[in-house]
């Protein structure tokens, strides 16, 4: 009786690497946009954007909540050169404000169907030394810093797993000191580090002001800002910020959406700027 020959086990074919997804968008949420009254509507727009195939990272600050906390504690912020000076007590209030804003934001996103990954992981930063801000005397802003790096590998793993990273605009120095970060510059760094396709800003456009989609080149936007240099509406401020992001090469496209979230994906109600 012949021994039956055992066939070698079939070798499994190596799994094909997954196709890279679209470059993520960085959505910057702050000020009025992070208020409880607007969060559900904005979260619904972000969820729709993600369901339509977009990937996003949300960077938020908490000026709205910080102002409420300072008012409740009767501890108004101190300023130098029109910038907030951060001491240990002020950083403590900022942590409280960011925590409150982060929980409310993640709850609104989860309710809208966008699975958030709320991160307490601060961005790596370095403390800002005293410097001149248009005057003759250097101003020390205390526990304020500048973002220098983010954990891009960790953020990409979250994105590939279908999660929506939600980051507070807060930095951690190499010596473990928490630092308040400039919101705009931190968003630019995050966009560059992540190779983001676009930066999304909320600019207060109402449906009545802009029913369709408006596209502008960087040169057109700069010319518009020059004509309206005395206008200080939120939309004009965001237009200026979008121009700066394009000039610095942080992204190739900026979207200004409304405070209701309309136009976050670049559709109706958005102003789209391209370099």
Structural features, described:
The chain has 275 residues and is of the alpha/beta class. The chain has seven helices and 14 strands. The strands form three sheets. The protein has an eight-stranded mixed beta sheet, sandwiched between helices. Helix 1 crosses helix 3 and helix 2 (63-73) crosses helix 3. The longest helix has 25 residues, at 88-112. The radius of gyration is 22 Å and the shape is globular. The termini are far apart.
**Main beta sheet:** 8 strands, mixed
Number of helices: 7
Strand neighbour order, sheet with most strands: 5-8-2-1-11-13-14-12
Radius of gyration, CA atoms, in whole angstroms? 22 Å
Describe what is shown at a glance:
By secondary structure, the chain is α/β, with parallel strands linked by helices.
Which features would summarize this protein structure in a list?
275 residues; alpha/beta; 8-stranded mixed β-sheet; 4-stranded mixed β-sheet; 21% strand; globular
Topology of helices and strands:
Elements: E1 25-29, H1 39-51, E2 56-60, H2 63-73, E3 78-80, E4 83-85, H3 88-112, E5 116-118, E6 123-127, E7 145-149, H4 152-160, E8 164-168, E9 170-172, E10 178-180, H5 183-194, E11 198-202, E12 214-217, H6 218-227, H7 234-247, E13 253-257, E14 271-274
Parallel strand pairs: 1-2, 1-11, 2-8, 5-8, 6-9, 11-13, 12-14
Antiparallel strand pairs: 3-4, 6-7, 9-10, 13-14
Helix pairs in contact: 1-3, 2-3, 6-7
């Amino acid at each position: 009786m012949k021994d039956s020959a055992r066939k070698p086990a079939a070798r499994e074919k190596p799994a094909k690497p997954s196709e890279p997804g679209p470059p993520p968008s960085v959505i910057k949420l702050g000020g009025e946009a992070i208020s409880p009254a607007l969060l559900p509507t904005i979260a619904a727009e972000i969820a729709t954007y993600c369901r339509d195939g977009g990937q996003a990272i949300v960077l938020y600050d908490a000026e709205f909540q910080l102002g409420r906390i300072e008012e409740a504690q009767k501890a108004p912020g101190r300023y130098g050169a029109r910038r907030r000076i951060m001491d240990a007590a002020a950083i403590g209030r900022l942590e409280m404000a960011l925590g409150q804003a982060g929980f409310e934001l993640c709850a609104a996103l989860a309710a809208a169907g966008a699975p958030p990954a709320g991160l307490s992981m601060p961005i790596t930063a370095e403390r800002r030394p005293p410097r001149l801000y248009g005057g003759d005397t250097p101003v020390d802003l205390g526990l304020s810093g500048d973002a220098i790096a983010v954990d891009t590998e960790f953020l990409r793993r979250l994105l590939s797993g279908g999660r929506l990273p939600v980051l507070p605009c807060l930095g951690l120095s190499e010596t473990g000191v928490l630092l308040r970060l400039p919101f705009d510059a931190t968003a630019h760094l995050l966009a560059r580090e992540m190779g983001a396709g676009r930066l999304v800003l909320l600019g207060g456009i109402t449906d009545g002001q802009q029913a369709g989609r408006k596209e502008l080149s960087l040169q057109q936007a700069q010319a518009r800002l020059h004509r309206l240099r005395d206008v200080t509406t939120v939309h004009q401020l965001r237009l200026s910020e979008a121009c700066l992001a394009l000039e610095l090469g942080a992204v190739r496209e900026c979207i200004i959406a409304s405070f209701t979230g309309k136009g976050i994906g670049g559709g109706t109600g958005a102003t789209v700027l391209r370099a």
